[in-house]
Design goal:
- The chain is an alpha/beta fold.
- It has one domain: Metallo-beta-lactamase, Chain A (4-Layer Sandwich), CATH 3.60.15.
- The protein is built from nine helices and 14 strands.
- Strands 6-5-4-3-2-1-14 form a seven-stranded mixed sheet. A seven-stranded mixed sheet has the order 7-8-9-10-11-12-13.
- Strand 3, helix 1 and strand 4 form a beta-alpha-beta unit.
- The longest helix is centred in the N-terminal third of the chain and has 13 residues.
- The chain is globular and about 65 Å long.
- The site of one zinc ion has 4 residues, from loops.
């Protein structure tokens, strides 16, 4: 299991990413749903201030403070810089929970900011296109990796071993950055330039039918299909789907999987908690 996701547009959205113990958004109901897994979370990244993405934060902090578990572990909360609503909400939470057993660290983030993670990984925030006047961010997890320098790519295993013995591993290996995961947040389609060669794309898809979209601040299924012609992720997870499409989810998933055969497609059902 890598992800536990609950997402129903307008109601509640949160994404738990187990490999790096991260939480993306913190909609209502999260603490009751995740139970004692909330203690393993070290960092929370908030995409924007809409209530369906932040309403669970007060409960999360309170539960983490009062229930059993490793209460002393710090909690870091990152949010879009300049989001007054989130700042006021954080101040309210801090004033209501004056005696926290753990250290609560809150940090604003803006486009291009980097947060170091463990295991040679780091997170990068990017600007998204959501509601005018609302600061909103998407997030990407990247990993520093090493591979054989291209000048040595034709050498046999034996020759490579000789080189390593002579000069050491670092001599033959070059550094590169691998995009592991891109999460859109609430947004119009994320640019293919940002997504790049991400292994996994978690993208919002509020509208399955284009005609239902009255204001252009969320992504439609047609736009996802268009996007998938430019990028080649191994896996796509669509979330933030409107519950008006509950009965279409399976059908859409089958159709997308047939159209994009090389991509593993998941759609987070608005009424279910998805474990992926
Ligand atoms: Zn939303
Ligand atoms: Zn929103």
């Amino acid at each position: 299991m890598e992800f536990i996701i609950r997402s129903k547009a307008l109601y509640s959205t949160w994404i738990y990413y187990k490999p790096d113990r991260l939480l993306f958004d913190v909609g209502e109901g999260i603490s009751a749903s995740l139970g004692n897994k909330i203690y393993s979370i070290e960092k929370i990244f908030i995409s924007h201030s809409h209530v369906d993405h932040i309403a669970g934060l007060w409960g999360f902090i309170n539960t983490r403070n009062n229930a059993m578990g490793s209460r002393e572990k710090n909690l870091e909360i990152y949010y879009p810089k300049g989001s007054k609503n989130i700042e006021e909400y954080l101040n309210f939470i801090k004033s209501m929970n004056k005696y926290l057993r753990f250290k609560l660290i809150t940090k604003p983030l803006e486009h291009g900011d980097v947060v170091e993670l463990k295991n040679n990984r780091f997170l990068k925030a990017f600007k998204t296109r959501h509601t005018p006047g609302e600061k909103s961010l998407g997030f990407q997890i990247l990993e520093k990796r090493k591979k054989l320098k291209s000048i040595y790519s034709n050498l046999s295993g034996e020759n490579i071993k000789e080189l390593i013995d002579k000069f050491g591993k670092d001599h033959i290996l070059g550094n590169y950055i691998k995009k592991i995961l891109t999460i859109s947040g609430d947004s119009l389609p994320i640019s293919p330039d940002i997504i790049g060669d991400s292994d996994t794309l978690v993208h919002e898809c509020t509208f399955i039918k284009e005609s239902d979209r009255k204001i252009r601040n969320h992504t439609s299924l047609n736009e996802i299909k268009e996007l998938l012609n430019f990028i080649h992720p191994k896996r796509v997870i669509l979330y933030h789907v409107s519950s008006r499409y509950n009965r279409l989810i399976n059908k859409v998933k089958t159709e997308l999987s047939e159209e994009f055969k090389d991509i593993k497609v998941f759609i987070v059902h608005p009424e279910e908690i998805s474990i992926i």
